[in-house]
Amino acid sequence: MNVLQNQQARLVLASASQVRATLLRSAGLSFDVVPSTVDEDIVKTTLRRDNQDTTASDIAVVLAQTKATDVSRREPQALVIGADQVLFCDGRFYDKPRDMDDARNHLLSLKGKTHTLHTAVACAQDEAVLWYQDAQVSLTMRDFSNDFLGRYIAQNGSDLLTSVGAYKLEGTGAHLFEHIEGDFFTVLGLPLVPLFAFLRQKGAIVT
Amino acid sequence: MNVLQNQQARLVLASASQVRATLLRSAGLSFDVVPSTVDEDIVKTTLRRDNQDTTASDIAVVLAQTKATDVSRREPQALVIGADQVLFCDGRFYDKPRDMDDARNHLLSLKGKTHTLHTAVACAQDEAVLWYQDAQVSLTMRDFSNDFLGRYIAQNGSDLLTSVGAYKLEGTGAHLFEHIEGDFFTVLGLPLVPLFAFLRQKGAIVT
Questions:
Q1: How far apart are CA B192 and CA B198, in angstroms?
Q2: Interhelix angle for A56-74 vs A40-50, to 10°?
Q3: How many domains does chain A have?
């Protein structure tokens, strides 16, 4: 039952993220998942090379838009939702960890510091970006022990590789932090409140 | 596997809330659920009758403490976690809706307004409160249509009766709001970040 959605509107989520799909599904929406095939590393590298002043928000917005337009090319008429999340700490951008060693290094370098997560969401239709928004949240990681880190990595395994910060706040991530400031959905990677405002404006969900 | 927990520490959750149990379980903790048998209405009525200046935070804190100590009487030595959430809007306290009509009335009176959720968590052991904390978040409900409200109620049914605001942010609640400000876990009813800081201090989870 998805009585909150206009049945004429076809929604597509241009993301392979299970958390994003769960958020939308739990909010009662029906949609197809069609992950984008954009090479994110090329987009990021090009952005930073062409402009030294590129911010974390810029990268998140461009990637969310690029993923949404990429998928909208293959899904005519559908409203395609793209999203991206960039982690920034001490002048450095963090990508998703490549392997478990990388995940451990991410956590060690974020430990005891405050980082920002920049989350962008964009909607495209027939290759045009109709709307986008970016938001940020601030998270302070506590000064955990090496014993904790080993156990945390053992507990989570390769799940850590699916998140830019090597943590899942909806899981064991709460053990890592001493302070979290910001919106629920922005931390999880899909700011639903502004996205739903746009979808209502487009008549895709009930007002 | 719960390698993040000290196996000597027995944790008890003094709450029948599925959301709170899911949060703790997802964070990798093992615990027993033993709901308190305290009559919350009597506690609230007495508090308000005895002190006209009783705030929403006062009520949430006293209820979280009362539930934790109540259950700790039956669970010697266990660290017992109690929690409570009070909704306050326009000078009025809201309790969990009694029935579907009440849920509809709650949503109609919160519509288009900003309300606060006061969430308290307390830990007790052998009838003594060892620690407590309260936090608040602010949520602005959008001016939704009657059509939306009917569909929202149809979609959620009696699930609405399990939450003080007749919404679940982790479900379809995102459709209701235009702005949400505050911590993730505080909205869901169990502020894990300060709770885990206390549990680390007590040696119950790994530091």
A1: 10
A2: 140
A3: 1
Contact between B6 and B204 under an 8 Å Cβ cutoff? The reply is yes
**Bridge partners, A180 (sequence order):** A139
Domain limits for position A165:
11-201
Size of interface A-B (CB pairs under 8 A): 105
Q: What is the pTM of this model?
A: 0.93
Q: What are the helix and strand counts (H, E) for chain A? A: 7, 7
Report the DSSP pairing between strands A114-125 and A79-89.
Answer: antiparallel
For tokens 């017992």, name the residue: B80
Of A28, A154, A185, the CB nearest to B155: A28
Residue A149 touches chain B, beta carbons under 8 Å: no
- Cite the DSSP H helix spans in B28-181: 40-50, 56-74, 100-110, 146-156
Please say whether the beta carbons of B168 and B174 come within 8 A. Answer: no
Residues whose CB falls within 8 Å of the CB of residue A162, separated by 6 or more in sequence, listed in order: A17, A18, A96, A168
CA distance A162 to chain B (A): 16
CATH code at position A22: 3.90.950.10
β-pair partners for B123: B81, B131
* Residue B118 placed within a domain: yes
Q: Is B148's Cβ below 8 Å from some Cβ in A?
A: yes
Residues of chain A neighbouring B169 (CB-CB closer than 8 A) = 184
Catalytic residues of B: 84
The pLDDT tens digits of the residues spanning B122-150 come to 999 999 999 999 999 999 999 999 999 99
**CB A175 within 8 Å of CB B205:** yes
Does residue A4 belong to any structural domain of this protein? Answer: no
Q: B125 has which bridge partners?
A: B128
Per-residue pLDDT tens digits for B39-71: 998 998 899 898 889 999 999 999 999 999 999
- Nearest chain A CA: its distance from B64 CA (Å): 21
Structural domain contains residue A2: no
Whether residue B4 lies inside any domain: the answer is: no
Chain B closest-CA separation from residue A105 CA (Å): 19
Contacts of B201 (CB under 8 A, 6+ apart): none
